[in-house]
From TrEMBL:
Domain Lactate/malate dehydrogenase C-terminal: 155-329
Domain Lactate/malate dehydrogenase N-terminal as annotated: residue spans: 6-151
E.C. code: 1.1.1.37
PROSITE patterns: MDH (PS00068)
InterPro entries named among the record's database cross-references: L-lactate/malate_DH, Lactate/malate_DH_C, Lactate/malate_DH_N, Lactate_DH/Glyco_Ohase_4_C, Malate_DH_AS, Malate_DH_NAD-dep_euk, Malate_DH_type2, NAD(P)-bd_dom_sf
Keywords annotated in UniProt: NAD, Oxidoreductase, Tricarboxylic acid cycle
Protein family: Belongs to the LDH/MDH superfamily. MDH type 2 family.
Name this protein carries in UniProt: Malate dehydrogenase
GO terms of biological process kind: malate metabolic process; tricarboxylic acid cycle
GO function terms (MF aspect): L-malate dehydrogenase (NAD+) activity
Function: Catalyzes the reduction of aromatic alpha-keto acids in the presence of NADH. Plays essential roles in the malate-aspartate shuttle and the tricarboxylic acid cycle, important in mitochondrial NADH supply for oxidative phosphorylation. Catalyzes the reduction of 2-oxoglutarate to 2-hydroxyglutarate, leading to elevated reactive oxygen species (ROS).
Length: 332
């Protein structure tokens, strides 16, 4: 097997620190797939990055053929098979959302251009850095020679959070909850939808409503808990979710590489144009998807009630506004 070239940006940061070992060990791209890891960060972080490289070397992992730390995009993006874009401008105290968007548009425009210029046209790009949906859209728009379908953003963390909340409520393991959906933006407007969930209780698949037996919780506190979970972690740890974000990144990329099981779907932020759910075109919006041969397909034919429709529309409206603001900075 030839090596897969995998880039992680923001590689000196805390999400990457939780992520790199799992990738290098073979948990994501395959147990026998040799890897070259490219680690990109800003110049002042290079000394820290050297420490990360030393640790990866000291893990003595058989699949890890080479680790290349760099602050140069032409090195980082060359011939990539996968790009995991974790690095972004974090929101500082008192920063306007618009200023945050502007800073990130500059970052993801240049990374999109680098993908366009240097990476394989088959590269799969996962955007994690927030605002992830809009950053992903900007990167995709800045890489016109790479198909839009090759870009996705991370909502698997929200998906995993939602599955666990239902499992906890029912006193079962998290893998007994299948076909959760996160619709929309990776923000507090996201809609965690349990209407199509299958919950395995004592060997039998039932709906989330039948398993939980508390509709008020499912339509209220459950949704707000998942929407606000990131903020709750920051409040408690004084740092954003890293371990759980890294685990979700691994789940997301592994599903792209190995495909999903027949009849099961997961949430990811993908290009909305041509979607069957009346979501506005030209957004990166989280949908339920199934994956085969490294290609995702939005799961079609799911019934959407009025409760769901309103929430799906609200998060879409936020994304349209974010997109329009971000695109206005693209020409600047």
């Amino acid at each position: 097997l030839g090596c897969d070239l995998v880039l992680v940006t923001g590689a000196a940061g805390q999400i990457a620190y939780s992520l790199l070992y799992s990738i290098a060990k073979g948990d994501v791209f395959g147990k026998d797939q040799p890897l070259v890891l490219l680690l990109l960060d800003i110049t002042p972080m290079l000394p820290v990055l050297e420490g990360v490289v030393m640790e990866l070397q000291d893990c003595a992992l058989p699949l890890l053929r080479e680790v290349i730390p760099t602050d140069k995009v032409d090195v980082a993006f060359k011939d990539l098979d996968a790009a995991i874009l974790v690095g972004s401008m974090p929101r500082r105290e008192g920063m306007e959302r618009k200023d945050l968007l502007k800073a990130n548009v500059a970052i993801f425009k240049s990374q999109g251009e680098a993908l366009d210029k240097y990476a394989k046209k088959t590269v799969k790009v996962l955007v994690v850095g927030n605002p992830a949906n809009t950053n992903c859209l900007i990167a995709a728009k800045s890489a016109p020679s790479i198909p839009k379908e090759n870009f996705s953003c991370l909502t698997r963390l929200d998906h995993n959070r939602a599955c666990f909340q239902v499992a906890l409520r029912c006193g079962i393991s998290a893998n007994s909850v299948k076909n959760m959906i996160i619709w929309g933006n990776h923000s507090s407007t996201q809609y965690p939808d349990i209407h199509h969930c299958k919950v395995n209780v004592q060997g039998k698949d039932v709906t989330a409503f039948d398993a939980v037996k508390d509709d008020a919780w499912l339509k209220g506190e459950f949704i707000s808990t998942v929407q606000q979970r990131g903020a709750a972690v920051i409040k408690a740890r004084k740092l954003s979710s890293a371990m759980s974000a890294a685990k979700a990144i691994c789940d997301h990329m592994r599903d792209i590489w190995t495909g999903t099981t027949e009849g099961e779907f997961f949430s990811m932020g993908v290009y909305s144009t041509g979607n069957p759910y009346g979501v506005p075109e030209d957004l990166i919006y989280s949908f339920p998807v199934s994956i085969k041969d490294k290609t995702w397909k939005i799961v079609d034919g799911l019934a959407i009630n009025d409760f769901s429709r309103a929430k799906m529309d609200a998060t879409a409206a936020e994304l349209v506004e974010e997109r329009d603001t971000a695109v206005s900075f693209l020409g600047v």
